[in-house]
Specification:
Layout lengths: L18 H37 L7 E6 L2 H14 L4 E5 L3 H9 L5 E5 L4 E6 L5 H17 L3 E6 L11 H24 L6 H26 L7 H26 L3 H11 L1 H4 L12 H5 L4 H14 L5 H29 L22 H27 L7 E6 L3 H14 L4 E6 L2 H9 L5 E4 L8 E5 L5 H17 L4 E5 L12 H23 L6 H26 L7 H26 L4 H10 L1 H4 L11 H6 L4 H14 L5 H37 L1
Parallel strand pairs: 1-2, 1-3, 4-5, 6-7, 6-8, 9-10
Antiparallel strand pairs: 3-4, 8-9
Length: 694
């Protein structure tokens, strides 16, 4: 049976549709099916390519470093620093220690070193300007200082507060503001285009900016306590950021129509997030991001918040100017485009409605209901993103992280564990063992995070066995803590890494981005199909679409990850096979939600797959450093199953893929059975209603 082609808009009064009408309808019909594949291909491909290209192997690139001290000593140190890695640093000599500190606080340099005649060197960083940047600066400068026989002192001039120890508060706030700015207008264009008339949208956008900007401040400030103080200024930045991004997105909808959502995603997410300098220093990414940092809105919003919260407003004016100019120029350009269109076609009306309803029912007759539904969509997305993701990750602290203490006897190990638990209660799940080989095997298969081997008569040093490929964040935590433990025991510590990360994945985040590509692919194809071609949502049509898409997209993602960005080396067949299952499973889960909620299924789907899935994935952050609930979710959600499958394939010979495939199959089968059952119930109900009417 073929799909029905309707021609209500084009039917001539009192007559049959012409051949031209039929041809136009057939083209539109085909175009809607094509959009099912083209839109998610572009969105997912663009995002995963951008993230893997930018962030799979961050390393210092032209990082600005200030050197202060006696003239000849400063020049010699600067020359040695540049000779060690000329591409890594951009060194400048400054007059004195005070000048070096001022440059760090003004964020004109990433770090500084101040030398003295007494044989000491002080390394200055600003943790609030980026925790990853501070680590890079210390890693660059410390070897040079120690190599020249100088005594090293490290000083953080602007440390992050206890309420946001990872510096994620500003990052998630900025992303929420961008989401609130660009998402609503694309939905308006498809559902309620009359709202996009200039005289209506500007005051609506202003009110929306105040509403959502205040919500972002409320969640991040009074509710979670991530940010404190500066209420009026923070609110102003939030309002301005949303209004500026919304204004630019308004202009993009005027010139690009429905494709404006791709342009918005490109500027505020694909390019904007890496260039923001919030999660990762722009001086550790390809050089293009340093340039983009100066004018993209994500960077302007994030750096404005960072400036107010941590640096006394230093540099605020320049970032606010980016937002103000963006809003003014975008609104002026929109007026110009509108005037040009009116001149060409004075009788042109609003754009055609392509998405009559956001729910699973008919288009609401009441405009008020329709507008409230329209506003609820981005409102709920912002709330979920901030409350779940920020709430899960803004205070990363070890929680029952499993570590085994190894000694000659379990009694000896137990005595050490008893002493450690007095000082680290709740942080670690400390276990005892008298078998080094068994402990090493448990670290290898990720049963435990690390093993601390006590010194013995045969080996006078303590050994920490870690697994970098299992999670860099947890490895860094145990290494830092047990280095202090060994120091307290007055024994040297040797670190043994059973699975080091390759140079193509120095942060261990490639697993997350590949898995995210699978999950987004499965989710997006159903969402786009529901909006672009509702006829495709019938199960007998959607199944082959989802199956074919699941065969295609994981292969595309492998091409992005391996030959294009170099983030992955080989492993095509296992990654493709697991990717097929993961993508198809996610499509079935999203289809089940779509049957219940229509296009509003995006909210629970993204909430489950991404907002809950990412903190529970053990990808961006160890699951032992998030609230306890995420440790449970790690074993049941699709995103953790995808991340751990990629990790197992890339770094551990596929040792744990089977159990994660079971997770996918359970989600896919249950979702598919639910769709079949719900369709059967609704079909019987429709038949009963028809019989009653007859």
């Amino acid at each position: 049976m073929t799909d029905t082609i309707t021609l209500e808009k084009n039917d001539p009064p009192g007559g049959e549709p012409t051949e031209a009408d039929l041809a136009r309808a057939r083209k539109e019909h085909i175009g809607r099916y094509v959009a099912i594949f083209v839109m998610p291909f572009l969105m997912v491909g663009m995002m995963i390519t951008g993230y893997l290209y930018a962030m799979h192997a961050p390393a210092p690139r032209d990082m600005p470093i200030a050197v202060a001290g006696p003239t000849q000593q400063a020049y010699d140190f600067a020359r040695a620093l540049e000779d060690a890695d000329p591409d890594a640093v951009d060194v400048r000599i400054v007059a004195d220690d005070a000048a070096a500190r001022d440059l760090v606080l003004a964020r004109e340099v990433s770090g500084a070193v101040s030398l003295s005649d007494a044989g000491t060197a002080t390394v200055y960083t600003a943790g609030a300007a980026g925790a990853s940047q501070s680590s890079l600066v210390t890693g660059l400068l410390a070897p040079q200082v120690l190599g020249q026989g100088l005594d090293l002192t490290a000083r953080d001039l602007a440390p992050l507060p206890e309420n946001d120890m990872a510096g994620l508060g500003v990052m998630f706030m900025a992303q929420a503001l961008m989401l609130a700015g660009y998402m609503p207008l694309s939905i308006m264009l498809s559902n309620s285009p009359e709202l996009l008339r200039f005289r209506r949208i500007v005051p609506l956008l202003a009110g929306w900016s105040v509403l959502i900007g205040s919500l972002v401040w409320l969640v991040a400030g009074p509710i979670l306590g991530v940010i404190q103080g500066h209420t009026a200024t923070v609110l102003g930045i939030c309002w301005l950021s949303i209004f500026a991004v919304g204004s630019v997105q308004l202009f993009l909808t005027r010139i690009l129509g429905p494709m404006a959502v791709l342009a918005g995603m490109l500027f505020v997410m694909v390019l904007g997030v890496p260039a923001s300098n919030l999660g990762m220093s722009v001086y550790s990414l390809p050089s293009i991001y340093s340039s983009l940092h100066g004018f993209l809105p994500t960077a302007a919003a994030g750096e404005s918040l960072r400036s107010v919260l941590y640096f006394g407003g230093e540099g605020l004016g320049g970032h606010l100017m980016v937002l103000v100019l963006g809003a003014v120029l975008a609104l002026a350009a929109t007026l110009g485009v509108d005037a040009l269109k009116r001149r060409r076609n004075p009788d042109a009306g609003d754009p055609e409605i392509t998405m009559p309803s956001l729910t699973n029912g008919p288009r609401p007759e009441s405009d008020r209901v329709r507008y409230l539904t329209l506003a609820f969509f981005p409102f709920a997305m912002v709330v979920l993103m901030l409350s779940i993701m920020l709430g899960a990750m803004y205070q990363p602290t070890p929680r029952a992280m499993p570590v085994t203490v190894v000694a000659g006897t379990t009694e000896q190990a137990g005595q050490v564990v008893a002493g450690l638990e007095q000082n680290m209660a709740g942080l670690f799940d400390l276990r005892t063992s008298d078998s080094l080989d068994e402990a090493r095997a448990e670290v290898q298969d990720r049963t435990i995070v690390a093993a601390f081997v006590l010194p013995s008569a045969a080996s006078p040093t303590a050994t920490l066995i870690t697994n970098e490929a299992a999670g860099m964040s947890q490895q860094q935590v145990v290494q830092r803590v047990f280095d202090q433990v060994a120091g307290g025991m007055q024994v040297p510590l040797t670190v043994e890494n059973v699975a080091p990360l390759p140079d193509s994945d120095t942060m261990g985040t490639v697993t997350l981005y590949v898995a995210m590509g699978w999950i987004m692919s499965g989710f997006m194809v159903v969402v786009v199909a529901g909006g672009a071609q509702p006829a495709a949502m019938v199960l007998r049509r959607m199944l082959p679409i989802a199956a074919g898409w699941a065969l295609f997209m994981p292969a595309v993602l492998w091409v992005i990850a391996d030959p294009i960005t170099g983030a992955v080396d080989g492993h095509f067949l296992p990654l493709w096979g697991v990717g097929i299952v993961a993508t198809f499973t996610t499509s079935m889960f999203t289809l089940a939600l779509h049957r219940l909620f229509g296009l509003l299924a995006v909210i629970p789907a993204v909430g489950t797959l991404m907002f809950l899935g990412v903190p529970a994935s053990n990808g961006a952050m160890s699951m032992y450093m998030t609230p306890e609930i995420f440790k449970f979710l790690h074993g049941v959600l699709p995103m953790p199953a995808a991340v751990e499958s990629v990790r197992s394939i890339l770094y551990f010979g596929g040792d744990a893929v089977g159990s994660h495939l079971v997770t996918f199959v359970m989600w896919g089968v249950v979702s598919l059975l639910f769709v079949v059952a719900l369709d059967a119930v609704r079909s019987r109900k429709e038949l009963a209603e028809q019989a009653t009417d007859a």
